[in-house]
């Protein structure tokens, strides 16, 4: 057995990674600390949950969805894209992957207590989201006009994934069009793991709420496990990337954070 010698550059890289992980841990704690506990308030508020891809709703706010449903509160989940681009495979086609992900979200949302008729798959091809932006705004606007929702939960504009940013922007536009009928709360997915582009600056003046989801954490874990295409090597291909236990662990901490949009963004939508 041969062991590759560790170069000074490796040591440096590992050191940088460890420092960054430590800083992000502090950042998450600081955000949690700033967030006001809205657990009781949230459980009675009807919500439209908007997810760019199947799984974002479960990772970012699956516990909050489960708590609302346990309380008999209405939750409608609108998933924008079909998630066909999460993996490239020589074994299954993008169409097959999209079908698998549709089945996964149907099971995951059922685990969270969302009735089948409250799950809306918009089915925008993941590689064509930009071209369908207006259709997304229209669809969310129509839901808001008919749904009587107190809240719209959507992925955070802090997330580095451009689909998450685009869907967040579409929701802001839709709420503006519908006459500001519901408050927007943004749930971090990738920014919860990797931080916003400028984490400490983002924290300045931020308004956020936290929901204690520890009583439904088993349900959230079970819902995440339904996403086998994301959590297991579905095709046994070496290139099939999975969300490992460490990554999933970020979403099983017992608290979900919702960031209220910055005032300048609210102004922009008016
Ligand atoms: Zn996503």
CATH architecture: 3-Layer(aba) Sandwich
Query: What is the name of the CATH class?
Result: Alpha Beta
Which consecutive residue ranges, at least 5 long each, have pLDDT under 50? 266-270
In the CATH hierarchy, the third-tier topology is known as Rossmann fold
Helix content: 40-55%
Number of domains: 1
Mean pLDDT score, rounded?
91
Report how far the terminal alpha carbons are from each other: 65 Å
- Ligand types: zinc ion
Explain what the structure shows.
Helix content is 49%, strand content 16%. The protein is of the alpha/beta class and 270 residues long. The protein has one domain: 3-Layer(aba) Sandwich (Rossmann fold). The strands form 2 sheets. The protein has a 5-stranded parallel β-sheet, sandwiched between helices. The protein has a 3-stranded mixed β-sheet with strand order 1-7-8, with helices on both faces. It binds zinc ion (ZN). Zinc ion binds next to loops.
Concise description?
The protein is built from twelve helices and eight strands. The protein has helices at 8-34, 39-43, 56-70, 94-111, 133-147, 162-177, 190-194, 199-203, 217-225, 228-231, 245-249, 263-269, and strands at residues 36-37, 47-51, 75-81, 119-124, 151-155, 183-187, 207-212, 255-260.
Give the helices and strands, then pairings.
Layout: H1 8-34, E1 36-37, H2 39-43, E2 47-51, H3 56-70, E3 75-81, H4 94-111, E4 119-124, H5 133-147, E5 151-155, H6 162-177, E6 183-187, H7 190-194, H8 199-203, E7 207-212, H9 217-225, H10 228-231, H11 245-249, E8 255-260, H12 263-269
Parallel strand pairs: 1-7, 2-3, 2-5, 3-4, 5-6
Antiparallel strand pairs: 7-8
The structure holds zinc ion.
Zinc ion is lined by residues 52-53, 56, 161, 164.
């Amino acid at each position: 057995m041969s062991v590759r010698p560790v170069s000074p550059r490796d040591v440096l890289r590992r050191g940088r990674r460890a420092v960054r992980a430590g800083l992000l841990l502090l950042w998450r704690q600081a955000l949690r600390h700033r967030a006001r506990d809205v657990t009781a308030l949230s459980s009675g508020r009807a919500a439209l949950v908007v997810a760019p891809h199947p799984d974002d709703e479960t990772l970012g706010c699956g516990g909050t969805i489960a708590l609302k449903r346990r309380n008999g509160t209405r939750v409608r989940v609108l998933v924008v894209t079909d998630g066909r681009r999460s993996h490239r495979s020589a074994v299954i086609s993008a169409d097959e992957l999209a079908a698998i992900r549709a089945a996964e979200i149907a099971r995951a949302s059922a685990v969270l207590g969302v009735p089948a008729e409250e799950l809306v798959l918009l089915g925008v091809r993941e590689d064509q989201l930009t071209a369908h932006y207006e259709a997304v705004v229209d669809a969310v606007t129509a839901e808001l006009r008919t749904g009587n929702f107190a809240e719209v939960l959507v992925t955070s504009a802090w997330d580095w994934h451009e689909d998450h940013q685009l869907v967040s922007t579409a929701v802001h536009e839709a709420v503006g069009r519908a006459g500001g009928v519901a408050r927007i709360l943004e749930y971090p997915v990738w920014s919860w793991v990797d931080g916003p582009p400028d984490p400490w600056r983002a924290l300045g003046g931020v308004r956020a709420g936290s929901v204690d989801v520890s009583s439904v954490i088993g349900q959230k874990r079970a819902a995440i496990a339904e996403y086998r295409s994301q959590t297991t090597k579905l095709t046994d291909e070496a290139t099939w990337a999975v969300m490992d236990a460490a990554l999933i662990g970020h979403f099983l901490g017992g608290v979900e954070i919702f960031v209220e949009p910055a005032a300048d963004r609210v102004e922009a939508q008016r």
